[in-house]
Amino acid sequence: MPAIYTYPKGAAVVFGGSGGAGSDVCRAFAAAGCDVAVHFHSAEAKAQAIADELKQHGVQASIGKADIREFDEVQAFLADVVKAHGSIHTIVYAAGPHIDVLPILENTPDRFRFMVESELLGFFHIARAALPHLKESVGNIVACVTYANRKVLINDGQSAAPKAGIESLVRQIAVEEAKYGVRANAVALGWLDVGQGALAPSDRSNVQTEIGKEMAALMGSMVPLGQRPGRGEELAAAVLFLASEQASFITGQSISVDGGATL
Fold it and tell me: Quick one: CATH architecture of 11-190+231-255?
């Protein structure tokens, strides 16, 4: 990737960096010359493999574990990142558990609570722990959310609702922290060929089975631009721009990377 964007000193921290979309974001930052801290929850081997790959770009890469539902763990992880890399210039939220596609009536209070704690509360913990570091570096936050906050998808409520809360927090952070030069933006993901949206299993996917030809055809029919899923590197390109110094006058915004599906 051409070095068209510039970044302050320090590291980009990618929460969920061991996952499908997150790993592509890690690769893009490394290709742009940034040090990267790869966060994982349980996939340590994947995180280490990604970090080893990133070092081929001549950058420093580290890994760290944290359950983002626990504020103390997030705080300790970020403190370790600062020790390893000196400072943090970008926080990327690309984490999240496996999503069960269910109507509200078939969901359970316990499962919905788990999603809220894993995503909305988890993002709050990340932002709350990261902001003191970002004030020092005049850094920024980029949160990966969903296009389902703009186009209602049947049976997607347990994913869309917490991410809507994340998007709201992003705008709140943007207003409150602007006086310190800290920015916060979001990227609304459409259907991507990574993670749960992958068309087929691969070493870059968290899924073990294909999503199904009928589902792929249905999802593709909703995408005007090519009737295909987006690629992880296309998501990463949007994240890199928003995190860069070239986007220094952009905050509180959300860019949809969905091939026009929400038009």
Answer: 3-Layer(aba) Sandwich (3.40)
Contact 125/68 with Cβ under 8 angstroms? yes
Q: Quote the pTM value.
A: 0.91
Structure tokens at 160: 């869309």
pLDDT of 127 over the 80 cut: yes
Q: Compute the distance between CA of residue 94 and CA of residue 123 in angstroms, rounded to an integer.
A: 10
The amino acid at 250: I
Q: Kindly report, residue by residue over 133-153, the tens digit of the pLDDT.
A: 999 999 999 999 998 888 888
- Domains of the chain, by residue range, sit at 11-190+231-255, 198-229
pLDDT band at residue 67 using 50, 70 and 90 as cut-offs: very high
* Token pair in block for residue 3: 């070095």
In the chain, the percentage of residues whose pLDDT exceeds 90 is 71
> What does residue 219 show for φ and ψ, rounded to 5 degrees?
-65, -40
